[in-house]
Amino acid sequence: MEKNEVKKVLYRVKPKAVLESEKTKDTYVYASTFESEGTGYSLTFSVPISDMGDAKFEKEMDAHLLIRWMDSWSIL
């Protein structure tokens, strides 16, 4: 699945992304999974703290809100 297809599915399915770790002092890592056409996918998002500004980032968020920082995706 190509990146643009992943983005479309995230808006349609609206899976949750969970804060997995603070990779470094300046980056938060979120992870999510979703299913499309019978295939499961895993996603990661690396959000630099410098990009957060005054926005509120929760421990669990809608994954489509993190598309800007999508690092990778793979088939489960």
Short description:
With 76 residues, the protein is α+β, with helices and mostly antiparallel strands. The chain contains two helices and five strands. It has one domain (3-75).
Give your account of this protein's structure:
The structure is a single chain. This protein is of the alpha+beta class and 76 residues long. It has one domain (3-75). 20% of the residues lie in helices and 50% in strands. It has 2 helices and 5 strands; from the N terminus they run H-E-E-E-H-E-E. A 5-stranded antiparallel β-sheet has the order 4-1-2-3-5. A hairpin with a 2-residue loop joins strand 2 (27-36) and strand 3 (39-48). The longest helix has 11 residues, at 3-13. It is elongated, with a radius of gyration of 12 Å. The model has no long low-confidence stretch (mean pLDDT 92).
Order of helices and strands: HEEEHEE
DSSP helix fraction = 10-25%
Largest sheet: 5 strands, antiparallel
Shape: elongated
Write a concise keyword list for the protein shown above.
elongated; 20% helix; 76 residues; five-stranded antiparallel β-sheet; single chain; alpha+beta
Secondary structure layout:
Elements lengths: L2 H11 L2 E9 L2 E10 L2 E10 H4 L7 E3 L7 E6 L1
Antiparallel strand pairs: 1-2, 1-4, 2-3, 3-5
